[in-house]
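Hey, can you fold this one?
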Amino acid sequence: SYTLVASTFEPFMFSRFKLRLELDGPFRLTAIPREGAGMRLRELHGRWVPNTDCAGGPVDQCYARNPRFLVRTDRETPVLARLQTPQAESLPLINVSVFAFDDAVLGSACASSGSYTNSPQGVATRLATIGRAGPAEYLVVASTWDHDIDASFVLYFYSEHPVDTMPATLASVYPHIAPGPHTDALTYKDAALSGKTLATHLKAQHQKASRALILGQGGAAWQHCTTAVAYCNLERLTGEYGEQQARQLCCRLWILYICVLSSLAEVAEEDGRLRTKGGVELAGFPATVRSVWDAIMAAFGGFAGNVDSEVLVPLVLLCLKLRDARTARDVVEAWLATLSEDTVYLLQSRGAMRQQQRSMAQASYLRVCELYTLHILPQLGDLSSAYEFLSVSTVVSEPAKDEFTKRLDALRNPPAPKRRSRPAAKKSRKPKAVEQPLLTTTKPVAHVAKSADVAKGELAVDAQPAVAAALSARSVRVGKHGARRGGVKSGALARRPRSTLGIAWQVVRRLVSRWGMTLFTLAVAMAVLRLVTQRIRLPQLFTAVYRKLWSTIKMGTQVTYI
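Sure. Predicted structure:
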């Protein structure tokens, strides 16, 4: 049997494809799930350091000093481990093995990747079953064949059921396990946690940081947040607090951390790194948003797809606020590409089971897709990728696709700005020039002709009939209006004197047009009220008030209160 793998040269490339296979003889082509499909993934990082924990293969006496990770489980579960060195300049010969670990003694191997090899894909164990009915512990050892290797590695550990996974250097938290030579600084026996459980300590730090942020004390809020997230690890909290409550607590802490960072951070113009707005030095202040994303992934098991979307959305908004759209794109694409099979199945399912959980997951997924397609990619000028993502997505519903496509079309072809209609320019009432008295003789024309040059004398004499015709036409045009006469101003300047009676009539007409209805209503109301008071005996107080108002109105003064 053979395995065909369809891949892209660059990671996070979304597209559909068709695979066509032709052979001379009969064959059967079956789709197989990807590695670790349907299993829980833990991404663990480490490094080999020469003369410290790079101890060679199992033939060496110091093999147990290689980087190792403790796995605890209370029931049987299938597991799978893969070891890779993606950042090594020259690929070393590596191996990964799982050993039983009883009473601090390294037992027999339960699973192994086999011979040491330097494949670019790394090495992986076969699917093996570990655990028993009661609590059991195992060690995963990542080793190299040579002793002088200085390189980092990534260990992907898959399990069908929940297990606790941590570096073996943290084994000092268990009294029956001897501490290693390099104990991690973050242990449960820290002085700050004395007499408290880890969950109680994190809740207290969350309350202090929230109170300081509300009061505007950014430095105090940052100090409490950094203390809390330093101990915030989903795997550690799951054993003490339960998986669901541990995830909720981790989300609350990291969301608060991002909010505090957003209120304090700004981008330095000289080198593009993060700094505080007031220039105050704060311990543990990140240099880039990418380092914050790495810390969040480490807290959620070192796996991008395991990060809750409630944490992812504020982080993406922080990237957009700091004008770092490239980091936002990398974060979202890593999250979309590494979603667990269970999450993808939950998003694509249409049944009635787990309806509330599915609705919440779909809403969170749509928020991430909206940020990715309508905010991140347009800022990078990559609208074609946004269209392609929507076309190949099997999770986004058709109505949501249509809505996103319309908004993308609006971003690609923005409508022309509507010009405000200017009010029609009012016609300028320019006073017309005062007309000269109409000419009845041609003496002025003859005078003009005589004063002209001799060479133009003939032209002036010939112009006399044209000038006379123009003046006669003008006199006829003015005569039609009947208001323009010789020596009288035209247009708006010509006003007839009004009589006193006409002026009084204009004043009455304007008052009636503005206050006529009001005065008429008031007069009718007063007449009706007067008739009522004459026929019906009202209380003396009402009568006094009425008389006071009536006398005030008759006097024509403003009504004053008694």
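Confidence is low (pLDDT under 50) at residues 170-195, 424-428, 432-495, 557-562. Let me know if you want another pass with a different chain boundary.
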